[in-house]
Amino acid sequence: xxxxxxxxxxxxxxxxxxxxxxxxxxxxxxxxxxxxxxxxxxxxxxxxxxxxxxxxxxxxxxxxxxxxxxxxxxxxxxxxxxxxxxxxxxxxxxxxxxxxxxxxxxxxxxxxxxxxxxxxxxxxxxxxxxxxxxxxxxxxxxxxxxxxxxxxxxxxxxxxxxxxxxxxxxxxxxxxxxxxxxxxxxxxxxxxxxxxxxxxxxxxxxxxxxxxxxxxxxxxxxxxxxxxxxxxxxxxxxxxxxxxxxxxxxxxxxxxxxxxxxxxxxxxxxxxxxxxxxxxxxxxxxxxxxxxxxxxxxxxxxxxxxxxxxxxxxxxxxxxxxxxxxxxxxxxxxxxxxxxxxxxxxxxxxxxxxxxxxxxxxxxxxxxxxxxxxxxxxxxxxxxxxxxxxxxxxxxxxxxxxxxxxxxxxxxxxxxxxxxxxxxxxxxxxxxxxxxxxxxxxxxxxxxxxxxxxxxxxxxxxxxxxxxxxxxxxxxxxxxxxxxxxxxxxxxxxxxxxxxx
Amino acid sequence: xxxxxxxxxxxxxxxxxxxxxxxxxxxxxxxxxxxxxxxxxxxxxxxxxxxxxxxxxxxxxxxxxxxxxxxxxxxxxxxxxxxxxxxxxxxxxxxxxxxxxxxxxxxxxxxxxxxxxxxxxxxxxxxxxxxxxxxxxxxxxxxxxxxxxxxxxxxxxxxxxxxxxxxxxxxxxxxxxxxxxxxxxxxxxxxxxxxxxxxxxxxxxxxxxxxxxxxxxxxxxxxxxxxxxxxxxxxxxxxxxxxxxxxxxxxxxxxxxxxxxxxxxxxxxxxxxxxxxxxxxxxxxxxxxxxxxxxxxxxxxxx
Amino acid sequence: xxxxxxxxxxxxxxxxxxxxxxxxxxxxxxxxxxxxxxxxxxxxxxxxxxxxxxxxxxxxxxxxxxxxxxxxxxxxxxxxxxxxxxxxxxxxxxxxxxxxxxxxxxxxxxxxxxxxxxxxxxxxxxxxxxxxxxxxxxxxxxxxxxxxxxxxxxxxxxxxxxxxxxxxxxxxxxxxxxxxxxxxxxxxxxxxxxxxxxxxxxxxxxxxxxxxxxxxxxxxxxxxxxxxxxxxxxxxxxxxxxxxxxxxxxxxxxxxxxxxxxxxxxxxxxxxxxxxxxxxxxxxxxxxxxxxxxxxxxxxxxxxxxxxxxxxxxxxxxxxxxxxxxxxxxxxxxxxxxxxxxxxxxxx
Amino acid sequence: xxxxxxxxxxxxxxxxxxxxxxxxxxxxxxxxxxxxxxxxxxxxxxxxxxxxxxxxxxxxxxxxxxxxxxxxxxxxxxxxxxxxxxxxxxxxxxxxxxxxxxxxxxxxxxxxxxxxxxxxxxxxxxxxxxxxxxxxxxxxxxxxxxxxxxxxxxxxxxxxxxxxxxxxxxxxxxxxxxxxxxxxxxxxxxxxxxxxxxxxxxxxxxxxxxxxxxxxxxxxxxxxxxxxxxxxxxxxxxxxxxxxxxxxxxxxxxxxxxxxxxxxxxxxxxxxxxxxxxxxxxxxxxxxxxxxxxxxxxxxxxxxxxxxxxxxxxxxxxxxxxxxxxxxxx
Amino acid sequence: xxxxxxxxxxxxxxxxxxxxxxxxxxxxxxxxxxxxxxxxxxxxxxxxxxxxxxxxxxxxxxxxxxxxxxxxxxxxxxxxxxxxxxxxxxxxxxxxxxxxxxxxxxxxxxxxxxxxxxxxxxxxxxxxxxxxxxxxxxxxxxxxxxxxxxxxxxxxxxxxxxxxxxxxxxxxxxxxxxxxxxxxxxxxxxxxxxxxxxxxxxxxxxxxxxxxxxxxxxxxxxxxxxxxxxxxxxxxxxxxxxxxxxxxxxxxxxxxxxxxxxxxxxxxxxxxxxxxxxxxxxxxxxxxxxxxxxxxxxxxxxxxxxxxxxxxxxxxxxxxxxxxxxxxxxxxxxxx
Lengths: 501, 303, 348, 330, 336
Ligand SMILES: Nc1ncnc2c1ncn2[C@@H]1O[C@H](COP(=O)(O)OP(=O)(O)OP(=O)(O)O)[C@@H](O)[C@H]1O
Ligand SMILES: Nc1ncnc2c1ncn2[C@@H]1O[C@H](COP(=O)(O)OP(=O)(O)OP(=O)(O)O)[C@@H](O)[C@H]1O
Ligand SMILES: [Mg+2]
Ligand SMILES: [Mg+2]
Prior knowledge:
Chain A is α+β, with helices and mostly antiparallel strands. Chain A has helices spanning 36-45, 103-114, 120-126, 150-154, 164-167, 174-177, 222-230, 245-249, 279-288, 291-298, 328-338, 355-370, 382-391, 408-415, 430-441, 445-462, and strands at residues 16-21, 50-57, 60-70, 73-78, 84-89, 128-135, 138-143, 185-191, 195-200, 213-218, 236-238, 254-269, 303-305, 345-351, 374-380, 396-402, 465-478, 481-482, 498-499.
C-alpha cells in the first residue's frame, strides 16, 4: 500500500494513502449521501461554495464551524435583514470534465438538491426561497427569513456544486455511481464491497493535492482495522475502538488522534410513559448512572462526560443545572418521593450494531438494580429499533446523535422541541419551545446563546434523558501522515493530507 | 393334537440368525459402552448437562456480576478462566452458557422433531398428493442455506433466545421429515406392517405403535447430531447479533463480545466459550456417531 | 385323489366355530369367488414421480373359486404375480379391476371401516418370519393386537385366549413375554400363524410361509398348517414357488405365468399329467432328490419376459417349445376340461 | 504329492465377535480330484460358505481367521502362502461364483470389463484381446448377442443372465477348480435348470473340478459325484451321491431326506427333525446333533463321535455306526 | 440426458415459486422499516415518506408481491437500499468472490476428505483411521467464527504469514482482467502470477476456515460409504479374481463409494453458503455473505430475497448437476 505510483506526466511521484474505512457507502450523489463513506466520496470529488475554517485545539487541528471560509465562492455579502446573500464565484475554476464552473451550475445544483428525496430537508432547513444567477460569476440566494445557520448549512457536502453540462443527457441517477464535480480527487473506482480508489485531480483549481492516490479499504470488523493499522497495512484507520487506543499508541510508528466530537450518547426515557412521566423518576435515574464507570470501563477514557443536552463544543453550550453526579442515595430518595420506594421494572430497547451501547446497558442495569430498579434489556435489529423509535412509544432506549450543523438551534430543534422530528420521547416543555423559537429568530449570536443556555438549563433539570457521554472520534494514522483535520461531520478531507515518503 | 404336541415341542436353543438378532439387542448397551469415542462423547454431554444444571452451585460468581475493578484479568487463581471487560468471571459465564446452549439445542431439536417427524411420516404413509406437497415443501426449505434461513427467521421474530430456538428448530424440520419419510417408506413395506393392516388395525395406530418405534433409532441418531448442529447454529446467530440479549451468558455471544479483544491479547474471552461450543458439539457428534455405528447393522457388518 | 375332498365333519366343525357370524351362509360350498382379478402397478420413473409411464401387469385377469375347507395352491416363478394375487384378494393392495366375493359379500364394495371389520374373516401368513413380526413387540403384544383391535375383552379372557392360541400352534405360554428375535425361524412362523388365527378367520392366504425355512423346519410348519386346517376347518390359499411343497399341501393347484392363471387342476391330476407346456417345463425343471431319477428335462429358452410389456397373444409363446403362429397372435382363454382348466391353444 | 486337486485337512475357521469366538468351521477334511464334482449340503449356518471362503482365502479381514488346518491346492498349502502368491492362484487356477448374481457384480462397470478383468490381470492380455475374450466367454455360457452385452451394465440383465456372466467371469482363466456357493438358490427353477445344464456342459468341456455348495438335495442328486453333509461346522457324513440317497447312515441325513415333501407322497404327515441348529456359541458338549436326534443315546450327550470310514469311503460321524462297525469287527 | 435436464429445470419452477413466496413473506415480516433506516437519523417524516413511495412500500402487500414477481421476471432483483445500488449490481460485484470462496473450500474439502476417508476405511481401526476420525470429528464441531478469529490472530497477527484480512488481493496489485470473476482462474488465464499468488494467499485462510465442516462431513461420509461398499458382494467377487487389493479399491470400490458422498457434497452447498456469511464477515471478504448479514440487520428486503433466491436456485442447480453426475457414474440411473 505504501508503494509510489508515478504521475502520468513524469513529475516527481507523489505518495499514495490507504485508509481502513468501515462501511462501503451507498451513493456518490451529493444530494442523497447520508453516511460517512458516501460523504467522504462526495467531499473528495466536489467543492461547495464555502467551507469551514480551522483552529487548533489541544495541539491538533480541528475544524471551526463558526468560521466560514471561501471555496468556490471567493466572497459574499449578506443583506441587512439577513435574507439575501450574494456570492461572487472564483475565476477560472474548471470541473474535472474541463467545463468551466459558472453560476448556472450553482443554481442547477441547489435546485436539484431542493428536489431530492434525502437532501431536500437540509435545503428546507436552510430556508432558501430562490437561487438566481444574475451573471456568470454571481449567485444570489434569497431566504424566506433570516437564518443564522444558513452559511453553516451550505458548507455541508449536500450543497456541492455539480457540473451541469456533464449532466446533460444523463439519467438522474447518473450521479449515484459517477461524479461531476470540481473536487481535488477523481474517483477511479468505488466498489462498496471492497474499496474505493481516488486519484489526484492534477488540474485542481486550488492546487493539486499532495497525495497521488487514496484507497479506502472497507473493513467492517473493527478489530481487523486495528490490526491492519498496527501491522502497517494501512496508513490510516477510522472508528478505532476506544479499548485499542492505548495499545496502538504504544506502537511508535502510529499516532492516534482522539478528538472530542459533537456526537452524544444519551439514555432516553419516554416522558409520556409511566413511571418516566414523572420528572423525579427521570432525575433519579440520572443520579443512578455510573458516569465514570461508563467512560472508564466502556470508553476507556475516550469520551467525555456530558452535562447538557448539547455537546460541549457546540456554541452556546452550558452545563448550568447539571447536578447529576452519581449518587445512589439521592436517587433512592427521589424515587421514594416519586412514589416508587421499592423501585420498578422497565424495558430498555437496544438497537444492535454498537457494542459499547450494550456494555453501557449492562453496567447501568447492574447499577439500577442497586436502587431496586429492574431494567430488562430488549435487543432488536437496528432497522427494527429505528422503526420502533419512530412510533414514539419505547419506554427507554439508548441513542446517539450528531448534529450536522453544530448549532444548538439545529440540535434542540430536532431532539427536544415538542415538534422535533427526532423527539421520540415526547418531551414537551412549552417554555423550552418558546426559548428555542425566539432564539431561532435572534440574529445576534450572544443573545441567541443566552436563550439557548436557558433552554438547556430547563432541559437538564427536567432530565428527559440521562446524559451518558460525548464521544471522541478516534482516527489512527501512521506517523508519516500529516495534515489531518478533524471535522464535526467526521469526514476526512484528503486534500489537506500529505504523507512523508 | 397330542401327536402334534410331541413333534412340535419347541427347542429352547435359538437358531443362529435369531441369536445374532438377540445379540444385537442385548449387547446394544455393551457395544455402545465398548465404543470408546461414543463414551467419550457421552461423557462430554453428561458433564456439560450436569454442569449446566448445577451451574448456580458450582459457578464461583454470578454470570452477570460485574466488577470493573478486576476486569480483563488473565486466568488466575481467583478467576480460572479470567475475567471479561466488566470483570465478569468467564468461568461462571461459560458454565451458565452451557445452560443456554444445551437448552437451546434441546428445544430446537424438539421443534424440528415434533414437526418434522409427523410430516415425514404422514407424507410417506399416505403418499399421494399430500405427501408430494409436504415433501416438496421440505425440499424448498432445504434449498435455503440453513444459517441464512435461520437468520431471516430470527430477525423476523425479533432477536432473542426464543426466536433463536424457533429459527434453528424450523431449519431442522426438513432433515427430520426426510429421514422419517425414508424410514416410513421402507417400513410400510415391511411384512409386519402389512400383517397389522391385514388384521384391520387403524392407520393411526400403525403409524404410532409400529412405524414410529421402529424408525426411532435413526431419528435418535439424527436428534443427537441435530443437537450439535442446533448449538452451533444458535451460537452463530448470537455471534451475528441475532441471539440472546445482553447480559445473558451464551457461548456464541461471548465469542462475539470477546472477539475485539483477541488482538489485544485477551485470548481467554473467546477461547473458553469456543471450547465450550466445541466440546458440547463434539460430545453430541461422537455420541450420535457411536449410536449410528451400533444401531446401523450395515456399518457394523462392514467391520 | 383321496386328498381332493375333506371329510364332511370338518366342514360342519367350521360352521359351528363361526357360529355367531352375521353373514348368511350360502347354499353353495364356494367360499370365495374371484372374477377377473387384475392389478396393474403404474410404472414411475425411478427417482422423480411423474405421469405413469406404463403399468406392470402383476395380475392380469385371474378368475377362480375356492371351496370351503380346501387348500388351493398357487405356483409360478418369481414375479409372476402370486403374492399380488394373494394380497389383492384380501384387498391389502387395491385391485385395479375384478370382483371378489366372500360368501356373497363383494369385498371390493366395502368401505374402509367395513373392510377393517371384515378382516376378521380372512387373514394372511407371510413369507419372511423375520420380517413379519414387529421386532419391538413381545409375542404377547403381537397376539393381543388383533384381539384388541376387534373386540373389547377383559384382561383375563385375553390372557386365556393368548395361551390357547399359543398352545394351538405349539408354543409354550412362557414364550409370550419374549421378543421375536429370541425365536427361531420356525417358531416365528408359528407366531405368525397364531396371529392369523387369533380372529378365527375362515380363510387364510399363506404367501410362501415356508420358503425362508430350512427343510427340517419347513416340514414342522407344513405339518402344523395341515393339522390346523383339519381342526379348524380353514380354507387356504397357499402360495409357493416350490412345487413339492404345493403338491404336498394343496387339493388343487393353479399355475401362474406373467400374471395369468395358465392351468388349474386337482393336485394329483396335475402332477400325474400336466397339460400346459409351461407346467410341463416347470415340473421337469425341478431337480429330483434322486440320483437315478429319469431326467427328460424340458429346458426353456430365455428368461421370463417383463410383466411391464408382456408378449402378445399367449404370454408364454416366447419360451414355449410348441408355440404356433396362433399363440403369438391370440390370447388363449382358461377353458374347463372336466375338473381341470387350462389356457392353451393346444387343447382347443 | 497326491493326485487330489484340492485337499483340505483339519480346517478350522473362527470368527471373533462381540459374543465370543465362533468356530464356524470345525475341523473339516475335503478332497476333490480333477474333473470331479463334490457337493456340500447342510442347513443354513452350518458353515458351507465359510468353508468355501476359507479355501479362497477370502474371509472377512480382522474378525475371520483360519485357526488350524491345511488347504493344499495341487500340493501347495494356501494357508501358509503370501498374499501375493494366493492372488496368483485365486481367480486364475481356482475361481468362485456366488449365490446372489444381483449383488455380486459391480453395478457401475460394464459386463465386458468385469468378465475379462481376471484374464487381463493374470494372463496379462491387452484391452482389445480382453474384449474378444469376454465376447467369446459370454457366447460360451449361452448368452446371445454377446457383442452387445459386453457393453451393458449388470442391472440391464436378468438374474439368469447375470449368473451366466458370473460363470463366464469365473471360467475366463480356465480354472482347474470352480467353487460354486449356492449358484442357483436365487434363481427360478426353469432358470436353475438352464444354469445347472450349463455348468455340467462346461465341466465336460474344460474338465474343471467343481465344489458345489447347496442346501437343495435335488441339486446335489443331479450334479454331484460325491457329497459331504455338514452340520454345525462339522462334516457328519461323506459318500458318493448314490449311496447317500440310497442308504444314508447319519440320523441327520436320514431326517433331512425324510422331511422332503416329494418323498413323502401319499403320506398324511411329513417327517421332521425337531428343534433347530444349535447356536455356534453354545454348542452341545457331545454330538452336536444329539439334542435333535431321534435315536440318541446317553453316550451321544457326553462325548463327541469321530468321523469314521465305514465302508468303501463312506464316512459318518455317529456312535451308532461306530458301534455297528465295532460289532462287525469283533 | 438433455431432455431430462430440461425436464428437471422445468420441475424446479414450482419449487422456485415456493422459494419466491417464502422469501417474500420472510422478508416482509422482518420488522423494521427500510425507509427509516435509509433516511438516516436526522431525516424528517417527509423524507421517509418520499423514500417509502420510491420503494413502493406504501402499496398493499399483495401489490408489492405482484410487482416483485413481475420485476423478477424482467431480471430486476430490486434495489439494495443500504448500499444504494441495484441488487443485480451488488451481486455482480460480490458474487464472484463468494463463488470463488465456496468453490475453493469445496475443492479443499474434497481433496483432503476423500483420500482421508478412503484411507480410514481401508485401514479401519488403524492409527491413521483413528487420527482421521478424531480430526474429522473435531472439524465438524469447531464453530467457523471461532476458527476464523483464531486464524487471523495466529497467522496474521502473531506469525505474519498471511496477508491482511482485507479483500481478495493485495492492494498493490491490480485485480486480474475480469473473465470469470474468480481471481485465481483469471490470473492463471492471463498469466499474471503475482496476482495469482496474492489472491491465493488471501483466499487460503478463509477457504480453509469455511471448508472444515464440509471436510469433516465428507471424510466421514466417504469413510462410511467406503466401508459399506467394501462389505458388499461384488467386492468379494473382485477379490475372488485375485487382483491386487489396490485395484479392488480403486476400480471397484471407489466409484460406488463416491455416489453417496456426492449427494452429501451437493447438500453441503447450502451449508457452505451459510458458512460464507460468517467467514466473509470475519475476513472482510468482499462477497455476498457479509452483504446479506447487513441486509438482514438493515431490514433491506431486496438483497435478502435475492440472496435466498439465488442460493436456492444455485442449490437446486448444483443438486441437478449432482444428479447428472450420478447418472454418469452410476449406470443404474438413467434419465430420459
Ligand atoms: N408395490 C409394487 N409396485 C410396483 N410393482 C410391483 C409391486 N409389487 C409387485 N410388483 C411387481 O408385480 C409383479 C408381480 O409381483 P409379485 O410380488 O406378485 O410376484 P410373486 O409371484 O409373488 O414373486 P415372488 O415369487 O418373487 O414373490 C412383479 O413384476 C413385481 O415387480
Ligand atoms: N462375518 C461373520 N461374523 C461372525 N460369524 C459369522 C460370520 N460369517 C459367518 N458366521 C458364522 O459362521 C457360521 C457359518 O456360516 P456360513 O455362512 O458358512 O453358513 P452357510 O452354511 O453358508 O449358510 P447359508 O445356507 O445360510 O448360506 C454361522 O453360524 C455364522 O453365524
Ligand atoms: Mg411373492
Ligand atoms: Mg452360505
